[in-house]
């Protein structure tokens, strides 16, 4: 194993990355709090500043995908449309199969320069998650409870508020409303059969009224069917060039935050105090549990109870 691969496998490296992300994220959240004074004075300036601050957080996660794991995402597209990406606002429809599929969406946002301003339709619970959830609040992310009767007015108003947004942005949306699992797919297809809707092979029924018409116009998953049949999407594959800004942003925060951490560690070891060392170990454990909790919010098994209510009603 080469030295880079060895370092990537070490738990201490993972802890340092978490430390940089958590501390820098909380610092940025604190700065965002002060930008609220700009809202009544200059709303567009407030938005532009928060786009840059949000980039400082979200780009750290994209850095892990691009530079730490060495992952590249391939875009299958019409070459004539390629030059328009990032130069206009757009709605981007994503599949929702894995814990980190949102990160692939962010990766494309970064490649085309719209990561800091990107939007999502997210469940309300995420707004309470420190760093990412709080960052989204200042980005005017659209939060929903996934109960249409309650969400109708709030979601529509939130979307209307974005019409005068000063930055080009991509609105990333998972129309299925939850992550794909075999159990959810079976329930979803039971609903489709009961309602006389087309049965989808690789997706759940969209959770948005009216989007079913869009799915039908795609000829029952023909695009996805082509991939499963041939192993390639029916378009020209393009790998957008990687930009250095995610790595440079992470290096900036690493240099800023690691020096005081190492200085603190040296002072604690020099003191020889068992209580001090035990306290530091406790903080590390709490931080690790906190990170695990934040990650756990996005896990598949913590997703929505998609279709369960309909299923229970049928069983009754």
Describe the 3D structure:
The protein starts with a helix and ends with a helix. It is built from 13 helices and six strands. The strands form two sheets. It has a four-stranded parallel sheet with strand order 2-5-3-4. It has a two-stranded antiparallel sheet with strand order 1-6. With 316 residues, it is α/β, with parallel strands linked by helices.
On the 0 to 100 scale, the average pLDDT is 79
| Helicity range | 55-70%
CA distance, first residue to last residue: 58 Å
**Major sheet: order of its strands?**
2-5-3-4
Give the helices and strands as they follow along the chain: HHHEHEHEHEHEHHHEHHH
Using only CA atoms, what is the Rg? 22 Å
Core attributes:
316 residues, alpha/beta, four-stranded parallel sheet, two-stranded antiparallel sheet, 13 helices, 6 strands, globular
Secondary-structure map:
Blueprint: H1 3-8, H2 11-34, H3 43-68, E1 75-77, H4 79-82, E2 90-93, H5 101-111, E3 119-123, H6 132-138, E4 142-144, H7 148-161, E5 170-173, H8 182-195, H9 211-217, H10 222-230, E6 236-238, H11 245-271, H12 274-296, H13 308-315
Parallel strand pairs: 2-5, 3-4, 3-5
Antiparallel strand pairs: 1-6
Short summary:
The protein has about 325 residues and is α/β, with parallel strands linked by helices. It has helices at about 5-10, 10-35, 45-70, 80, 100-110, 130-140, 150-160, 180-195, 210-215, 220-230, 245-270, 275-295, 310-315, and strands at about 75, 90-95, 120-125, 140-145, 170-175, 235-240.
């Amino acid at each position: 194993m080469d030295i880079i691969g060895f370092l990537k496998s070490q738990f201490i490296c993972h802890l340092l990355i978490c430390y940089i992300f958590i501390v820098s994220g909380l610092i940025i959240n604190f700065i965002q709090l002060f930008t609220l004074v700009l809202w009544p004075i200059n709303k567009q300036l407030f938005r532009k500043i928060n786009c840059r601050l949000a980039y400082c957080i979200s780009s750290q996660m994209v850095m892990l995908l691009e530079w730490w794991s060495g992952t590249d995402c391939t875009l299958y597209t019409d070459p004539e449309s390629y030059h328009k990406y990032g130069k206009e606002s757009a709605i981007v429809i994503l599949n929702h199969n894995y814990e980190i599929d949102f990160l692939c969406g962010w990766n494309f946002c970064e490649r085309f320069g719209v990561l800091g301003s990107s939007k999502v339709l997210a469940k309300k619970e995420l707004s309470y998650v420190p760093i990412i959830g709080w960052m989204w609040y200042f980005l005017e992310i659209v939060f929903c409870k996934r109960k249409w009767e309650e969400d109708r007015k709030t979601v529509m108003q939130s979307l209307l508020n974005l019409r005068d947004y000063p930055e080009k942005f991509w609105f990333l949306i998972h129309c299925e409303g939850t992550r794909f699992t075999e159990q959810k797919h079976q329930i979803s297809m039971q609903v489709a059969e009961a309602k006389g809707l087309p049965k989808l092979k690789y997706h759940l029924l969209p959770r948005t009224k009216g989007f079913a018409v869009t799915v039908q116009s795609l000829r029952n998953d023909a695009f996805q069917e082509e991939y499963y049949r041939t192993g390639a999407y029916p378009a020209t594959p393009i790998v957008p060039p990687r930009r250095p800004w995610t790595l440079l942003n992470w290096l900036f925060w690493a240099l800023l935050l690691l020096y005081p951490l190492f200085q603190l560690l040296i002072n604690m070891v020099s003191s020889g105090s068992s209580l001090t060392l035990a306290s530091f170990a406790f903080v590390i454990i709490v931080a690790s549990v906190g990170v695990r909790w934040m990650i756990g919010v996005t896990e598949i098994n913590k997703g929505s109870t998609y279709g369960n209510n309909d299923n229970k009603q049928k069983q009754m």
